[in-house]
Every structure is written in structure tokens, then in C-alpha cells.
Amino acid sequence: MSAADLSPFNSPFAAGTAGPSVRAVKDPFHGDLLEVSMGPQHPSTHGVFRMVVTLDGEIIVKLKPVFGYLHRNHEKIAENTSYLGSMPYTDRLDYLCSMTTNWAYALAVEKLAGQAVPDRAQYLRIIMAELTRLVNHSCLVGFLFNDLGTSFTPLLYAFREREKILDLFESLTGSRMMCNYQRFGGCRVDPTPEWLAAASRLVDNFPRFLDEYETMLTGNEIMLARTQGVGVLDAAKAVNAGITGPCLRASGYNYDVRKVDGYGFYPRFDFRVPLGAHGDTYDRYMMRVLEMRESVKILQQAFRDLPAGPIMDPKSKLRGFRPKAGEAYGRTESPKGELGFFLVSDGSPNPYRYRVRPPTLINLTLLEDMCLGHTIADSVVILGSIDIVLGEVDR
Amino acid sequence: MSTPATPSPASAPQPFPAAGNLSDAEREELRRHGILLTSLEELYNWGRSNSIWPLQFGLACCAIEMIAAATARFDIARFGAEIFRPSPRQADLMIVSGTVTKKMAPQVVRLWNQMPEPKYCIAMGACAISGGPFKQGYNVLKGIDRFIPVDIYIPGCPPRPEALLNGLIQLQAQIKGERLTGPGAARHVRSDVTSEFPVPEYGEHDLSPPKNPAVWQPAPSLVRPTKV
């Protein structure tokens, strides 16, 4: 049997849906191997993601990610819908952080149409985006510990905080998860002073939760043993593959779109970008914790400096919106990495081409490199530390 | 605690009626005296309805709300359904939480077939019911009820965790009303009703077959006679 037989393209898994989930394969270099299909229904693949893993004993010698189980035709639907009509769909792209996805799309359309955004709306956008980052990162840490085998407990703490932030989102926008908040040229609703006071209180109390969380998790011996030196990703490889977000910064490469691009009003804010040194799972975990602390700083500054004024640009058009022919790429630092929308307009009410640059799909491309040589139990932890959301991977 | 027992006006002991002929009011009266009368069917259904083990199986956005329903604030454990099993062999309830694409539909049907009876299905969210906002997409199944029988539909995009809990309570009521014998017996005690359904193939253009006519029939639509 040749090495080509090992290719998942030749395996019964890749061809169709039928076939066993485990099969033995022979390899001239390794001897008897086992090919295991993990997913699409698997408790630790964070959705309907599938890995075809070839194992030598417990060690991974080959890993092939299989996508497309949640391909919901987001881009094609958006090309047949008006610009504003796609806004609710962007909520469902990255369903843990609808606010940042809304913003990325609004940013792209505003670039396309040359639309200005009032100051108050810019601050509100930053408030929403950073609150979303708190939600995403705290939940991600909970899920990561689920993968490490803590059986739900850290996730309960994370969801406790998430519910508080989601209550704020709900009272403001009417929906817990699918906020649909940003508009081209501003935001949809203006928060009341009571809302801002409640949000500010929550943010001031958030470091207490982080301290509690870190006391439980960061120094945990099992956590250290399972994550340090596991899934190392070096910076050069990460840059070549286009990895962005906390995964890239954990490898020590300083790239944050909030600093590089300075979109919105981020240049007015004083915050630091945490950097890792080893690029392993532990560093990726610490990136999230440190970023949450920086987000709290940004939020405190935003609540302090929030100006009064309109939240929508008076020149913005909601109905009959037809940007001039042209193209634009708007990108933001979503909690998972660089999220970009590329739009081509031909002057009609719907985009001629609509393309999403999903951070998590591109971050997944190096999954095999991170997992090779580790045990199959570690692959689950490495996947958890990448922070994927399948709505965005498959779109 | 229980309400104080009202003194019985009857001095002479009355004949004790059979359990089947008791009205609800009479049984409630007996319960207040500390006497529980029940049938095996009722006891069995009561036990089952309070220990539904869902399949730990998230498809998309709704799965996050399903997890939220399991966490401390909503606490699905109050209804005995907190034990999410990753294996379909150990699960009683399949919560189809999210968009079912055509690539995923065969796996969902296979998971349903792997679950042992008695088993129930909740279609959570607009996508699982009908395709939802993604219905016009070329790759989205327009409702999981085209392939497997659905007991409870929970609308919403995504439904709140409270809505999922309400759906679960509805399911419990359904289980409590199930008959174990007779012509209206539940599926899991009948041998003439199948609980396994053919798994569709992910074909070149569509699922084949695109629906299971034994499970799903299109809603009757207005057919306008054409002028000749």
C-alpha cells in the first residue's frame, strides 16, 4: 500500500457520507495506522467541524480538516439582497459576536459609499465591540477548559458574565445574540443614561470576575501540563499562512488591526496589545485573558469620553441605498482575528460581489501543523484554543 | 407542607372505588389524605418525562442558546434534562439546534436512527423548522421534518433559552399523555411503526431523495385551474 492510500481524498470518508468512522490503514513508513473520523457530530469540535485524523497509536501523523457542514450560502444570499438586507445575516456569521461582524460589514459599506459616521456612533461601536470581545473571550476560555476535561464548571462562570452583557444587549437592541445594531452611517438605537450607567458598572466589576477566573484556571497544574508546549505555532509560519488575531499575537507577532488600521476611533484610545512568546496553547489562552483586561480599559475610556450628539449621519440613506460603482474592503479586529468584507458595487441596490474574509477559516489552515506529533487528546485542546465558529468557517 | 386534611363528614366507611373509575378531584382528595393512586402507565411516563437526556449535538447559532439553557441562569437541570450525552446511543432527545445543510442532513438522520426508542425530536429555531432566513440558499435543507418526525417546534432566531425550556415542558406533557397499550399507543411500544428512516445521499445536485414522503407531505396549496 502506498502513501497515496493515506490521503483522505481516497478514503471512504471524503467520498461520501457512508463508511465506517474508524478504519485501519497500512503505511510503508509507519506500519499499521488507524484513521479516525472525528466529527461532524463530536462534543469537542465546536459545531459541525470534522477532522480526519490518522493515528500511530495515539500520536497524530496526519490530520485533514473537512469543512462545509454549515455552508449556508451567506455570500450568495447577500449578492441577491439589498445592502441593508444583509445586515441581519452578518449577525449569524459569527454568532457569538454579532456586534463586531455588523461593524465590519458597516465599515465596508461606508467605505464603498463614502459615508461619514458621527462621533457618538463611533464611540458606541467601540463600546459594543469591546463588550462583545469580553463575551467571546470569556466563553472561549470556558469552552477551552471543557476540552481540557473540566466538565462545564469554568463555562458556568463564563456564561454567568455573558448573560449580564447579553441582558444589556437585549435591553438596547431587542435581541440577545442577533443584535443587528449597526447601520451605514451610525447605529440603530441610542442607549439611555441608565443603560450606560449599568454597562459602566458591569465593566468596572469585570476585573473582579477575571481575577476569580484566573485564580481558578491560570495556575492550574493540569492546565499547565496540558497546554504548555502543546500546539506550538512559530511566527513566520503563522504570517505566511495569514493567521490573524490572538493566535498570531500568541506567536509574538505584533499585528492588531485596531492599531495597524486605526479604524473607528481606536487611535484615540490608550490600550496595549498583549504579545505571547511561545505560540503554544497556553499563550493563546493567556492572550484572551490579557485582551479582556485591555478591553476593560478601552471600555472605561469610552464611557468616560462618550460625547453627546446624533447617532446617525443625517446624509445616510436607509431606503433606496445605491452606492456608486466601485469596490471596497473594510476590516476590523474581531475577537477571532481580522474580519473583512470585500464588496464590489455596480451601482445597483445589491452588491455585485460580496466576499467575507473569515478569520477562523484561515486560522484553521495550520491546524495540522500544530497537531502533528501530539496525541489525539491534545488535538481537541489545540482546536479549542484556535477559537473557531463554524458559521464563519463555512459561511 | 400539604394542606391540613379536612375532617370527613361521613361516619361510616364507604366502599373503596377502583383506581380507574376515580375522577381527578377524587384522586386529589385522596392525595391530600396521603394516599397516592396511580397506574403503571402514569408512573412510567412520569419517570421518563423527568429524565430526558438530550443529545449533545449543536449545529449552529441555536446551539449556543442550548448551552445557555444548560447553564446556571436557566438551568435545564430543573427539568431533569441536564445530562447531555455525546453518544446517540445514550440519548432520548435530539435537539436539532441550527441550520441543517444538505451536507449535514444525512448525518442528522443517521444520528436519529442510532438513538434507541423511546426518542423525541425538538426542532429548535427557524432554520431547523423550515430553513429560516437561509431558506433561499441552495445548500440549506428546508426543515428537518422532511426526514425525521419532529415532536416539538420552537420558533425563534435563535429561540431564547426560556423558549427551549417551554418546548421541553411541552414535550414532557406529551410524554405524560402517551398510551402504552391500545390503538393509540406510542411509537416505541408498537412493532408495526418504524423508528428508523432511510438516510438520504448527498448527491451531485441535491439530497436524494430530497424528502421522505412517509414522514413529510407538503402543505396543501391553492391550485388555480388554468384557462383553456
What does this protein structure show overall?
The complex is a heterodimer of chains A (395) and B (228). Chain A is an alpha+beta fold and 395 residues long. Helices cover 46% and strands 14% of the residues of chain A. Chain A contains 16 helices and 9 strands. Chain A has helices at residues 12-15, 74-79, 87-91, 98-113, 119-148, 153-173, 193-217, 221-227, 235-241, 246-250, 257-260, 281-305, 359-364, 367-371, 376-386, 390-394; strands spanning 22-27, 31-38, 50-56, 59-66, 182-183, 186-187, 326-334, 337-345, 353-357. In chain A, the strands form 3 sheets. A 4-stranded antiparallel sheet of chain A has the order 1-2-3-4. In chain A, strands 7-8-9 form a 3-stranded antiparallel sheet. A two-stranded antiparallel ribbon of chain A has the order 5-6. In chain A, helix 5 (119-148) runs antiparallel to helix 12 (281-305). Chain A starts with 11 loop residues before the first helix and ends with a helix. By secondary structure, chain B is an alpha/beta fold. Chain B contains 6 helices and 5 strands; from the N terminus they run αααβαβαβαββ. Chain B has helices at 24-32, 40-49, 61-70, 105-114, 125-130, 161-176, and strands at 93-97, 120-124, 152-154, 201-202, 207-208. In chain B, the strands form 2 sheets. Chain B has a 3-stranded parallel sheet with strand order 1-2-3. In chain B, strands 4-5 form a two-stranded antiparallel sheet. In chain B, helix 2 (40-49) runs antiparallel to helix 6 (161-176) and helix 3 crosses helix 6 (161-176). Chain B is globular. Chains A and B meet through helix 2 and helix 6 of A and helix 3, helix 4 and strand 4 of B.
In short:
The complex is a heterodimer of chains A (about 400) and B (about 230). Chain A is α+β, with helices and mostly antiparallel strands and about 400 residues long. Chain A has helices at about 10-15, 75-80, 85-90, 100-115, 120-150, 155-175, 195-215, 220-225, 235-240, 245-250, 255-260, 280-305, 360-365, 365-370, 375-385, 390-395; strands spanning about 20-25, 30-40, 50-55, 60-65, 180-185, 185, 325-335, 335-345, 355.
